[in-house]
Amino acid sequence: MKGLQPHNRGSLSFRPHLCTAFIAVFFALFSDSATADQIDCLVTNLPDGWNNGITSIINKPETASIHQLLPEALHCWLLEDSIAGYKVLISRQASIPRARFPGAYTDSYTAALVQTRHGEKIALFKYESFSKGWWSRIFPSPPDLSPVVGGDPIYNWIDLPARRDPQLHLALVEIVSITNELHTYTEAQNSKVSDDHGKAWYNLLNVWSGTATINVVESPGVEMPTNFTVSFERSQYVHTRGETWTDRLVKPRATLLGFFAQKNGKWSLQGGFHDPTEYLLIPRYASRLQVLFQTPLADAKSIADRKRVYDEASLRAKQQAETNGVKQN
């Protein structure tokens, strides 16, 4: 035993760099795991409406690096005149679903955990197009995962009951007829669409307005007239003014959700109609929405048919992404 002691002491006293290196590697791996978890926590728990509202657009090419994007994003979101002190702790790609139904198409974002004078922040970037540049948003870290007021009104109604406007009432209604139809045209100022994978873009909107006569099927918690009329407005991208309007939602015999308010004895629709089937496809919201009503919001066939439409669209989108998203050397 005595003969082993000098060897043991020597292994520690003459080669301390091995122990130091091991500790450094251990903490480096632990640090990378922790930072990655912070990004995962954000992208997997983003509340509804997280990407709504005003955002910062960075006019940089698709090849821009994270260090080229961050200065403008930090200046915009943190109002910093000097951002020289920031440090990127980790950056990677993150896939975020566009909607909350199974198989929803995802968008690819560049995510970065950044040390700033205001503490750690998580930055998200997504390249939009040559004409738009990079979309950006910065979140605190750890991220604030409270639901965003101002996103989808149905989501907010379910997630935030304490913040419901007492003047608004959610009701299930049936469209009886539509009159006073009017089509006007305007150019969308902040958005364009493309149906040929970005070769051509257009922003002409056909704005359809009219008066809908509705039957109130159910209005939980409030007495409403059985039958009345409301004004509504919807819009749709079109290539030309001569393109035919198509709308599967607002039409006679359709059963829809709507928020209604009463003023001076007259009821009005607030914010447009909503298709209940869309929300019944989302596991997180389906039962929580249905429990608000005694009337079934949609039958099993309607839900299955809509899910099949989305599954087919998602498959087409994935196939297009695989064949059209390849960068040529």
Give short descriptive properties of this protein.
329 residues, alpha+beta, five-stranded antiparallel sheet, 10 strands, globular
How much helix, percentage-wise, in residues? 25-40%
Q: What is the H/E string? A: HHEHEEEEHEEEEEHHH
What does the average pLDDT come to?
80
Kindly state the number of beta strands.
Answer: 10
Distance between the termini: 65 Å
Characterise this structure.
Helix content is 29%, strand content 33%. The chain is α+β, with helices and mostly antiparallel strands. It has 2 domains: 23-148, no CATH class; 153-298, no CATH class. The strands form 2 sheets. A 5-stranded antiparallel β-sheet has the order 1-5-4-3-2. The chain is globular. Mean pLDDT is 80; it is low at 1-33 and 321-329.
What order do the helices and strands come in, and which of them pair?
Elements: H1 5-13, H2 16-44, E1 56-58, H3 66-78, E2 87-97, E3 106-116, E4 119-129, E5 133-140, H4 153-159, E6 169-187, E7 204-218, E8 227-237, E9 255-263, E10 266-274, H5 276-280, H6 283-290, H7 300-324
Antiparallel strand pairs: 1-5, 2-3, 3-4, 4-5, 6-7, 6-9, 7-8, 9-10
Sum this structure up briefly:
29% of the residues lie in helices and 33% in strands.
